[in-house]
Amino acid sequence: MDKVVSPANRWSWVEVNLAALRRNTTAFRRQLTRGTQLMCVVKADAYGHGAVPCVKTMHSAGASQFAVATVDEGVALREAGIEWPILVLSEPPVDCVRTLVRYDLMPSVYTADFALALGEAAAAENRVARYHLAIDTGMTRIGVRRQDAVELRRTIDFHRGLECAGTFTHFATADVPDDWDFALQLNRFRETVAALRGAGLETGLVHCDNTPGTVLHPECHFDMCRVGIGLYGLHPAETTRVRIELEPVMSVRGRVTRVLYPNVGDGVGYGLTWRVPKQNIQVATVPIGYADGLSRELSNQMDVLVGGCRCRQVGNICMDQFMFAVDVNSVRAYRPSRPVEYGDVVTILGADGDERITAEEMAKLRGTINYEIVCDFGMRLEKIYT
Asked: Rounded to an integer, what distance in angstroms lies between the CA atom of residue 201 and that of residue 340?
């Protein structure tokens, strides 16, 4: 591994490869139908990667709009100097309408009471609040019911403080080839957009494709695509791998803070769930734990990389630390070329030499998805941008 820069205060960190992020963003731009805009989803602190640096990198690669999950996420971007359009991907509490107007954030709208309160807040400031109409076409999560969309718009469109800047839905099964439910949702969305336009109502930017939809369904790129997990180099499903090449953006590393040769039979960690089976076993400690996103469910199951080789994590993962073992006398490849030493770099997620620990590998062990893996690691660990 090349020379590694690590934080001074704690030997554990997340590395974010902005060059890879830029290449992934460019790869998605190339997927888009001519004239289609790219909205990058940067909710949950850009899926744990750090929203502000990611937004700047994505914009430099051609993204024109951004999406967050909460008002606070949008405010944080504005206060960091981000001026490009920001969509909040849900209808927030009505009490925050003044904040939305103040920071020029576009909420999703699907109830009349919220929309009218937003319009009043905007008119009081002699401004117009832009919003995106969210339509529930079958995912049953958020949005106005498709059959009620025209009535909702007629109820609120009189207000001089409101402007519809977009109309969207979200697919539940865009990653499934030839899926009946996807086709049904798309047909419902098209019919609803047509009904809005037939009633003389402005739809703004029409968008529905998420990451798998953008890759697998160019027929519904419409005016804009909302891309999330793929930007960070992670595939939402196996079906997208053959259609677009992506580079993982996040790596998670730490340094060894203690190493010793315990006695045969000595236990490791809370509950002593692993015991030293023979002589010449090293046990090393790394300061990353479940409070940093390394789930306790991975205890005694996962591997880490040291010197380009896999080593097995042992004992229960603690809140702030974990341990791994090295069989110094082993002739198998499952061992570094030399004994582990204090300060050695350990890779928890990412590549070291020819070996790589992927988010998909960790997700499979946890029974979850790669999205959760990277979001979890972004909670507490310091980020280093490369």
From this structure: 67
| Whether residue 385 lies in the annotated active site | no
Q: From the candidates 56, 131, 261, 270, give the one annotated as an active-site residue.
A: 270
**What residue spans in the chain does CATH classification 2.40.37.10 cover?**
250-385
Cα separation of 276 and 260, whole Å?
Answer: 12
Go through the chain and tell me how many residues it has.
386
Assign domain 18-234 to its CATH architecture.
Answer: Alpha-Beta Barrel (3.20)
pTM for the whole structure: 0.95
Rama region for 302: left / alpha / beta (φ>0; ψ in -120 to 50; rest): beta
Any idea of the CA torsion for 277, 313, 300, 261, to the nearest 10 degrees?
Answer: 20
Spatial CB neighbours of 79, under 8 Å, sequence gap ≥ 6: none
pLDDT digits (tens, 9 = 90+) for 13-69: 999 999 999 999 999 999 999 999 999 999 999 999 999 999 999 999 999 999 999
The CA-to-CA distance between both ends of the chain, in Å, stands at 15
- Which of 3, 43, 261, 334 is labelled catalytic? 43
Residue partners of 109: CB distance under 8 A and separation at least 6: 91, 115, 118, 131, 132, 133, 134, 156
Please give the structure tokens belonging to residue 253: 């590393």
Amino acid at residue number 356:
R
The answer regarding whether domain 250-385 maps to CATH 3.40.30.10 reads: no
How do residues 127-163 score in pLDDT, each as one tens digit? 999 999 999 999 999 999 999 999 999 999 999 999 9
Secondary structure percentages of the chain, helix, strand, coil, to 5 = 35, 25, 40
* DSSP string across 135-176: EESSS-SSSEEGGGHHHHHHHHTT-TTEEEEEEE---SSTTS
Kind plus residue range of the DSSP H or E element containing 21: helix 18-31
> Would you call 261 a catalytic residue per the annotation?
no
